[in-house]
């Protein structure tokens, strides 16, 4: 029977799970926020103002399965994901992905590996089925970094390059993610903040001592990750072509899914199509929908028109006509080499349709962008941000600042 809230903003039933685990987690090297400590009392109870004005008034957004924590050894924020493993002999696919990493097929230290790393897996005491997967604290690449995910064309190309690189490593190892879509891509945004930001209210510092806002990706490069490996599969191509039944995954706009919904398909060309769909729907246009015929007032980002030939080929109706990931990478590298100095530093999305945005662009966006690019040029920052190294999984060594 669920307990009734004692006051507005009290812990929910899903939150009490984490509060009860807090002492044990501290022993394992992870601390939870004040709200999830056993002796917590709401700081706003005797003060003026709503609970959202106080740090401990902010609930974890998905406490039934996810909880933010701080790794004691280096002060780095991590994410704890609660999973149920009814049979240890038959682990979930997410744990199988971790087994591939631990087997040596994939390496967490490989700079080309963009699968979200698993630092460790903790078995909850007095439970044979509940485990906690410890991962980096990541944020949504599209919606959590301000009004637009990128300031410049070069930053967008850095994102695309990392995405292609991560999928290429999987395909080289006969692995298909099988659910690549915009919300299965995350970013480690920690380099963008001078001080750690709050996990729920990203406009505030972790300790609630002041406001915090993201800095330039060009000057503070970030690393992007693929998440959600529930459908990921490792194929034995020696026994025949990889096959999956049509209709799997979140992006079901593929031509082969519609033409032969009960048939089989090759998951690797499916992956290529889905990559192209992300670029077209979120970087080249404002489509952001699986069904183009239902879209209204679609805007086109002409700053990214140079990607059109490659994306068109990636989204061919005939899967056999789509390029492989190696061919995609070769063509992408050639495209990047052909772009000039000013193009790479141009505004990522320069066009505005309505009058209000035109005013904002003229009086704020363009002057701000010009000043920012002068700083980047004088500081000799690369127009395409370099990919940061993979994070350290060690709990014993104190992490240091990356330059």
Automatic annotation (TrEMBL):
> Where do the segments described as Disordered lie?
383-403
Q: Does the keyword Nucleotide-binding apply?
A: yes
Say yes or no: keyword ATP-binding present. Answer: yes
Question: GO MF terms on file?
Answer: ATP binding; protein serine/threonine kinase activity
Biological processes per GO annotation: intracellular signal transduction
Q: Where is the Protein kinase domain?
A: 43-336
- Highest rank taxon of the organism: Eukaryota
Please name one Pfam family that this protein belongs to. Pkinase
Q: Which GO terms describe its cellular component?
A: cytoplasm
List the PANTHER family.
MAP/MICROTUBULE AFFINITY-REGULATING KINASE (PTHR24346), MATERNAL EMBRYONIC LEUCINE ZIPPER KINASE (PTHR24346:SF30)
Q: What is this protein called?
A: Protein kinase domain-containing protein
Q: State the organism named in the record.
A: Dendrothele bispora (strain CBS 962.96)
